[in-house]
Each structure stands twice: as C-alpha cells, then as structure tokens.
TrEMBL record:
Residues 23-106 form the Alcohol dehydrogenase-like N-terminal domain. InterPro entries: ADH-like_C, ADH-like_N, GroES-like_sf, NAD(P)-bd_dom_sf, Trans-enoyl_RdTase-like. PANTHER family: HYPOTHETICAL OXIDOREDUCTASE (EUROFUNG), TRANS-ENOYL REDUCTASE STHE. Keywords: Nucleotide-binding, Oxidoreductase. The keyword Transmembrane does not apply. GO terms for molecular function: nucleotide binding; oxidoreductase activity, acting on NAD(P)H. Belongs to the zinc-containing alcohol dehydrogenase family. Residues 131-211 form the Alcohol dehydrogenase-like C-terminal domain. Signal peptide: none annotated. Gene3D superfamilies: Medium-chain alcohol dehydrogenases, catalytic domain, NAD(P)-binding Rossmann-like Domain. This is Enoyl reductase (ER) domain-containing protein. Pfam families: ADH_N (PF08240), ADH_zinc_N (PF00107). It comes from Podospora fimiseda.
Amino acid sequence: MDVPLSPWLPSTQRAVVQSKDVVSAVALNHCDWKMPTRVPCPGAVDGSDYSGTVIAVGITAALTSPFKVGDRVAGAQMASQRRRPWAGTFTEYILEEADSAWLVPDNLSWEEAAAIDAQLPLAWPWRSASGTFAIQLLKLSGYKVVITCSPKSFQLVESYGAEKAFYYYSSTCGEDIRAYTNKSLECVLNLITETRTIRHCYAAIRRGGGRYCGFELLPDDLIATMRKSVKAEWVNGLEMTGLEIDLPGGYYRKANPELHQWFAELLKRFSRLIGEGKLRSHPIQVSQGDWKR
C-alpha cells in the first residue's frame, strides 16, 4: 500500500528516513528494553540507534541542513514515549529531526553506522559500543584511559586505545586501579550503574576526590555512604534531543535547545572523524531476518 509522505512532515525541519531496506540497519541498545520495561508506553514505537536512506526532506531542512534525498544517514531517537509515540526506529520509516542525524561516510557499512553510539576517565565496563567509542574520543581529547571488562575483551579494548584493562568482577578491582594510577585517578565514567560497580569506581578515585559520572542516578541507599570529596553526576543522552524528558523522579529534564544545538555541531565533527578513520565502529554481530520474524 502506498502512503503519502506529507503527513510524515508536520515540521519542515524534519526528514523521513527509510530504515527497512536490504542495506540499512538498527542496533540494539540497553535502553530498548529498559525504557518500555521501566516506563511502559502502550502504543509507542521502540528502538533508538539506526542507519538508513533519506527519502524525503522538509522545506526548512532542505535549506539549513546538508541532507538530500538518497543520502546515507545514521542517528539515535528518544523512543518509547507517550508525547511522541511515533518516535522510534523499530519500524520501516523514521521521522527524524534533520540536525539530529549525521552523514554516513562511504568507508562505513550500514551495520557499523547503526552501531555507533553518538550520545557519553575510567570506564565501567567498556567492552560495549558506548565504551569503545568513548575510549577513542577520550584518546583524541588527550586522556589516558583505564577500563574494566572481562579478560576475554582486554585485547579488544586495548586495540581501541585503552592503556590498561582490569577484570570488573575482581573483589579488589577498585583498589587495583587506584594502585596502577599511583592514587591519582580523578575521573570515572560508569556505564553500568550497579551498587557493586559504583563502590569499585569510588574506591579507584584518588584520596583528594574527583568526579564520578554514571549513566543512571546513584541509588538512594548509597548516596549517604559515599565520599563527599567525589562530585557525583549522571548523563542522560536523551537530553541531546533538546526536548523535554518526561520521565519520573530525578530523570525528568526540561527542554534544552542550547544543548541540542551543541550536539548538532558535534555530530558534524563525528562524521568527519569517522570519514578520516580516526573513529571506528564497535565490532558488530549481524542478526538475519526482517521486522516480521
């Protein structure tokens, strides 16, 4: 059945991306199961990371963005939400803000593009796509990166630029990292926010304090027991959309168009760095089949 594209462009700043194609892909992300499980929105589309082909561009987007019909693009969406139930990538067509996607260079496959998580130093654990991508960004920024993962992934993360890897299930992991860094570690990024990993992260930070950043809030029962010399904060990648984050409790965020503008400029840099071979995609595993299987 043919469907007219005009209803898909309520905002002229948007573009329509075809994601169901023999040469396009979506990537699985932790939020794809966390969001619908913890904050269910019946009828809303799920799926965040994608790559695909532009098949229509809004009038304003055509004037202000580099996108045109036929371009290869990739990005991530804030899915599984009640206010924008159509937003999500587990579907045949995606309605995307033109400044929220990036042009996929010719040296990157569809699957590799979808696997790039462009939403972020000790890393815990960093064998994930977010981890290997962040390792490279930190290296480009001049940092030395110490990471945690399983021993079978040591060689992988070191190939992406990690200086040293530690086993994240070791009971002395935090202390071992602190010793390795000469008790000088200042910054930690925790991708898996669990009580065990948080305690190890704090143990690794130098005595004089530092900064801890997680991808989720610190559990209430831990806050009172943690070192006050460590400044704790957390990153919500959804904020980069610039939209209001209508989630309960401490996860709520006001609309932030300034942050979105910064992110749009950052995406242009990502595309350039990837094209120059300075950023690599995470190793991928391709699953066969289509949306109906």
